[in-house]
Amino acid sequence: MTKPNRILKITDFASVSSCNGCDGAVLLGAHQQSQLAERICKEIPKTSQACALAFDGVRLMDISFAMKVLVPFKVMTLAMEKALVLKNLAPDILETVEAAIAFHRKKTGSQLCILVQQAGDISPVGYLEPALEKAFRIMCQQGYVKSEDLRRIEPQIRIENAGMRLKRMWNMGTAIRDETIDSYGRSYRYTLPQVS
């Protein structure tokens, strides 16, 4: 039986409070953050190919929450070959996530890219190398992308190189993939994670 993709609500894991007159703040101490990260990370194996964290009702989040909970959660989903989607981020939270990704890059030298879904549209936040941006746009426009699609828009690219680009996109957790085997051999179709 296939595991479903899951949506986890931040409000199910952390209490949302008021801070300086702003309702909807997630402010946790270091110990609470590590406990929350452990609780959320236990949910990853229960998902199929993607996991979403929904921020409904949350309007403010401190940077330490993003660095101590969201970034490790993203790293863990990558290790388990799953995509992570953050849903319904308030503008201030989106800025906090961007800052946490930038800090992670400066501290570790590794690039992270997290998918964010706002009003049904999914976009990458963080670093997505320019060669993968075209593939991501194609995937968004037609719902999927295959090596042949990249080759069509960049005829000079070899089909193997196109396949490696798409695999990098999957390795970054910005796409999920389905394998097909036919008389031509094995091929992959890359799509955006479906989390409703």
Secondary-structure blueprint:
Layout: E1 6-9, H1 10-13, E2 17-19, E3 22-26, H2 30-41, E4 50-54, E5 60-61, H3 63-79, E6 83-87, H4 91-108, E7 113-118, E8 121-126, H5 130-142, H6 147-153, H7 159-171, E9 176-182, E10 185-191
Parallel strand pairs: 1-4, 3-5, 4-6, 6-7
Antiparallel strand pairs: 2-3, 7-8, 9-10
Helix pairs in contact: 2-3, 3-4, 5-7, 6-7
Structural class: alpha/beta
In the CATH scheme, the class of the largest domain would be Alpha Beta
CATH superfamily of the largest domain: STAS domain
Return the domain count: 2
Report the order of strands and helices. EHEEHEEHEHEEHHHEE
Number of strands: 10
Using the alpha-carbon principal axes, give the shape. Answer: elongated
Give Rg in angstroms: 18 Å
CATH-derived topology of the largest domain:
Transcription Regulator spoIIAA
Structure annotation, total helices: 7
Contiguous uncertain segments of 5+ residues: none
Helix content percent band = 40-55%
CATH architecture annotation of the largest domain: 2-Layer Sandwich
Fraction in beta strands: 25-35%
Question: Mean of residue pLDDT?
Answer: 81
Largest sheet: 5 strands, mixed
Distance between the termini: 20 Å
